[in-house]
Amino acid sequence: MNTNHQIWSLTSQQVYQNLITTPQGLSESEANLRLKQYGYNELSEPQTRPLILRFIDQLTHFMALLLWVAGILAFISQTPELGWAIWAVIWINAIFSFWQEFQAEKALSALKQVLPNQVKAYRDSTLCTIPARELVPGDVIQLEEGDKISADARLVESQSLYVDVSILTGESLPVPRSSEPVATENLRALDATNLVFAGSTVAAGRGLAVVDATGTHTEFGQVAHLTANVKREASTLEVQISRVVHIITIIAISMGVVVFLLTNFLVGMGIKESFIFGIGIIVAFVPEGLLPTVSLALAIGVKRMAKENALVRRLSAVETLSATTVICTDKTGTLTKNEMTVRKLWIPGAKINVTGVGYEPKGEVEITNFECEPQVRLLLAGAALCSNARLNHPPGSSQWQVLGDPTEAALLVVAIKAGFKLEDLQHQAPRLREVPFDSHRRMMTVLLANSLEFAQPTQKTENTLQIFTKGAPLDVLQHSQFILRDGQQQELTAAERAEVEAANDQLASLGYRVLGVATRQGGTELREQENAALEQNLIFIGLVAMIDPPRPEVADAIALCHRAGIQVTMITGDYGLTAVAIAEKIGLISNGKPRVITGEKLGHLSDAQLRQILHKYQHGLVFARVMPEQKLRLVQAYKNLGHVVAVTGDGVNDAPALRAANIGIAMGKNGTDVAREAADIVLVDDNFATIVTAIEQGRAVYQNIRKFITYILASNMAEFLPFLAMVFLKVPPALVILQILAIDLGTDMLPALALGAERPEKGIMTQPPRKKSQTLLDVPLMLRAYCFLGLLEGLAGMTGFFLVWWANGYGISQLQAVSSSILSQSASATTMAIYHQATTVTLAVIVACQDGNVFACRSERVSIFRLGFLTNRLIWLGIAVEWALILAIIYSPTLQKIFATAALQPSQLLLLLICPPLILMADELRKRIVRQTPTVVFDHPIQNIQRQ
Questions:
Q1: Which of the 8 DSSP states describes residue 685?
Q2: To 5 degrees, how large is the angle CA 545–CA 550–CA 555?
Q3: Which of 160, 430, 500, 906 has the fewest CB atoms within 10 Å distance of its CB?
Q4: Strand, helix or coil at 179?
């Protein structure tokens, strides 16, 4: 069996010979032998890592290892309760992250589910139903309207066969298929008009085909192979968080080593004590709450995006949206509604607009000259009667269902808009005969039992029958001898032919799919005429122009993308003229001439040439008639240029690119399971505009992560300062290790989470995307957190610490004298009580300063008085819980023993009230300087944003 031969070039008899089969099909015994040879008609499962190993990955990545170390340090510092708490956080995050990643591995299973379960095939000369997985090359299968095709096959018989191949090619309309050989040598399989493919569906007609490829050897199987073998890269958030962890870890370990050396050699501590304080420094700098806060902040972003109809399947993909520089979008079903809609009518001397969109029959046929109304009604009635589609409106549903060809469904809808009742129309003129559409004639003709009453181009007799023909305008025009003008039949002159051709060209240039409609009347002799004779001497009536309309909200969404510095490139399997017309309507092409590159031309471009084109044409770029691997190639080319690429799509042909992109966005309403499973984000409403909202939320999430990192790191510096004072001033540490952990895991968690829930700031979508190389933890953020906010908090905490000692009669020298006894736990009970109260004041002051800091961190530039104190109520909830915890630590006898705290005096509590406004007003002064200075060390200059 020679399956490598260009099977489309063979005659039907040669196909049987080539595949060693007969028109009666295979015998059961031969089919079983071939089943053993070729295997089942299904997609093989790729080898994947066991689930247990993938779960362990979530427990052993660098951030998790950092928390494991923090837990160990808690046990070393003799605080097992917090050690267990830290490890519990690791397990919770591991389970949460594992479940999200596990969902992304279902893409191949979804691909397999697209294949039908049963198929009609000839076995032992008998047509029978067999499981689709048992099909083998050489099987002869029968195809009927509505069937899903289970394997790649060559047609040997066809009757008005149309196949929906959009699942593979992205074409919006069913394509004709015939059994005639195709002589072209250099032809891609998908362009062969006598081949059908697994995963596609029969839209109309009937056919008989011989299977030539099954399972992974089919075109559909190759798409599944591409999808399964594309390695997904780490998201920008994962890269950024990894960098943050590495930087902070280096800082923490370095400072811990420095303190260990200083306390051992300068302070004179023993090795054990120095080691314990070195651990304290590491604990102070390690942000134990960072990982859960990031995860929970992302979860809030996910929930918020879900309310906007964007479902996130991969948490870190939320932030990736904020860095997106290019959106590669499909056309059909993504930018358009995937619904053919009649928008224009043309008859000689008149143009008529049609309102409404989609298949819902709401709208009007706007006839301004009522003298042409009879001819317009004849045009629409003839088009509707020359259609085989059905339009259903299920009870209780707002959606209209289309059965059959969407173009014909559009003709039914416009007829209803004109006031026709389809059942009455079909009853008035029942069909006697049909000449089906085929790709050679490009026309369809029906013979009706009666002529219509409202418009008669010729004199009606008792035996009058009527013909309606619709099809490609130039072909219908070629078969017409007359034209209907002002309701009167006239000879079709050369000038009138030119008039029709010009009208057709004008509509086609606007991207409309144009159909011509003609008629003819006669007697009973029409019943006996040959098909070709029926379509002669026609009377041309007019043109019907329809379009797959763009979604009404897409134009604004694309305009907002442009303002946000995001490129939008159309990549479609449809024709270039239609793609360009849609691109112009939605504003994708705003200035200059569009650049259209077909899949054929793309195949001749080298990678260097392709990158040059992508770099040169940043707007108005349209790729038409592309293959799945070409779409994947475009994504890779954009990524090689340094772009962060988002890809939208809805079909199987989009899955490889969705998976390879930095962020894959699938349509949830009309999209396939394959696309949804391969994507990171699914748009529930199939609304392109939702992408813009998702990008805005993604940018907000990125800003919010910076906000709570600033907030957390500020307290880390405040926790570090007491140990510097211990080394250089030779005084006892103003905080104990357990109190540091209480701040990091207890008091900081909820306010930081509240910062993660901040709404997007005004003007966030007028800023260009951040560069891929821009770090999450950059110098301005670290200077603000460590050297400004954190330093102020640390100084305030140390001030409170010394005030307690001063109030009890201890100056610096006296405190230095008792320092060694306090460190060795040999000081008197009175001294230790003062020390516990002093550390408690330091703890409380830092927490109070963090209350001012949380409001300061709500924006890097905008004043809190413009944002408002009550616009994020989660902050107040976090503060309330924070103080409930800190007061319990201070006043609960049990917790006093654990955290080495003591009850505060009323005057000390009043001191805490000064701390929040102190930090907040200091940062307000910084923000004022930032807004008035182009460049400042504490912030980035932000372009294109209105000063607050």
A1: T
A2: 135
A3: 906
A4: coil
- Dihedral Cα 859, 864, 865, 866, nearest 10 deg: 20
Q: What are the pLDDT digits (tens) for 848-880?
A: 999 999 999 999 888 999 889 989 988 999 899
Cα pseudo-dihedral 754, 755, 760, 765, rounded to 10: -150
Q: Give just the sign of the alpha carbon dihedral 866, 867, 871, 877.
A: negative
- Residue 422 CA from chain centroid, whole number: 40
pLDDT above 90: percentage of residues in the chain: 31
Q: E-assigned strands of 165-223?
A: 175-177, 195-196, 201-213
Distance CA 675, CA 668 (A): 9
Catalytic residue of the set 147, 164, 212, 330: 330
Tell me if 238 sits within 8 A of 193, measured CB to CB.
no
* pLDDT band for position 947 (cuts 50, 70, 90): very low
User: In 3D, which of 853, 871, 849, 866 has the Cα closest to residue 923?
Assistant: 853
Alpha carbons within 13 A on the beta-carbon side of 158: 28
CA–CA separation, 366 vs 372, rounded Å? 11
Rounded to whole angstroms, the Cα distance separating 114 from 514 reads 33
Between CA 932 and CA 206 the distance in angstroms is 74
Strand order of the β-sheet with 621-624 is 310-312, 681-683, 663-667, 645-649, 326-329, 567-571, 621-624, 595-598
Sequence-separated contacts (24+) of 258-267 with Cβ below 8 Å: 259/723, 259/727, 262/727, 263/726, 263/727, 266/727, 267/726, 267/727, 267/730
> Alpha-carbon distance 681 to 663, whole Å?
8
SS3 readout for 800-863:
HHHHHHHHCCCCHHHHHHHHHHHHCCCCCHHHHHHHHHHHHHHHHHHHHHHHHHHHHCCCCCCC
pTM: 0.64
User: DSSP string covering 261-291, please?
Assistant: HHIIIII---HHHHHHHHHHHHHHHS-TTHH
More confident residue, 846 or 368: 846
What is the rounded CA–CA span in Å between residue 119 and residue 942? 62
Mean pLDDT estimate for the chain = 81
Q: What is the 3-state secondary structure (H, E, C) of 322-337?
A: HHCCEEEECCCCCCEC
pLDDT tens for each residue of 528-553: 888 888 999 999 999 999 887 788 88
pLDDT digits (tens, 9 = 90+) for 3-19: 445 899 899 999 999 99
Q: Is the pLDDT of residue 115 over 60?
A: no
Least-confidence region, from 192-206, 548-562, 933-947: 933-947
CA distance 305 to 873: 19
Q: Higher confidence at residue 129 or residue 92?
A: 129
Give the residue ranges of DSSP H helices in 567-646.
Answer: 576-585, 599-604, 607-616, 628-640
Residue 494 neighbours by CB under 8 Å, 6+ apart: none
Note if 650 is an active site residue. Answer: no
Q: Do the bridges between strand 480-485 and strand 488-491 make them parallel or antiparallel, or are there none, so unpaired?
A: antiparallel
The residue whose two tokens read 């999200």 is 100
> What pLDDT score was predicted for residue 128?
84
| CA 355/CA 338 separation, integer angstroms | 17
pLDDT tens-digit readout, 56-68: 877 886 666 766 8
Structure tokens at 635: 């994504």
Token output for 238 = 């994962």
Strand partners, 208: 142, 157
